[in-house]
Amino acid sequence: MDILIKNNKWEVAMIFKNIINHKKVFKLKKGFSLIELLVSIALLLMVATFININIKGYLNIMNDIDYILCDEAIVSFINNGKQYCREKEVMGRIYFPSNNDSLILYSGSKRIDIYNLPKNFKFIKVGVRNREININSKGITGDAGTLNYIDRKGKIHEITISVGTAHVQIK
Q: What is the pTM of this model?
């Protein structure tokens, strides 16, 4: 029995010695295996793809909302200009500057209001005479034309203005 205890003590001592010296029983890893690296990279790529798809979807939705609001804002701006001229009994004009990103309402030489298109939207064709829409003191437009603008995705949107009426149509 003494021999067994001595042998066991010796084995226990050797195990502790090996643990302390990190030799045989427990070897410490000094890096990642190839499989671990490949799995990590694959997971990162899947997350990046998911994020990219969501960002593109968000940008598409944001563009769609902006062009709908832009259509309505341009029509409202024109109609508000007509109403201003009718209520104040003054002549006015809506001017489209050459930088192609805004509309400005003037009454005489006084600037009344301005509307800026959303970021990265541009007028590509302003089919009205002298880049302006004239409004008489009764709030009636004397110029017909079509306004074309391009959104962030490159889609062209059209707004048509009829002469002598209050009709402005989004196409």
A: 0.68
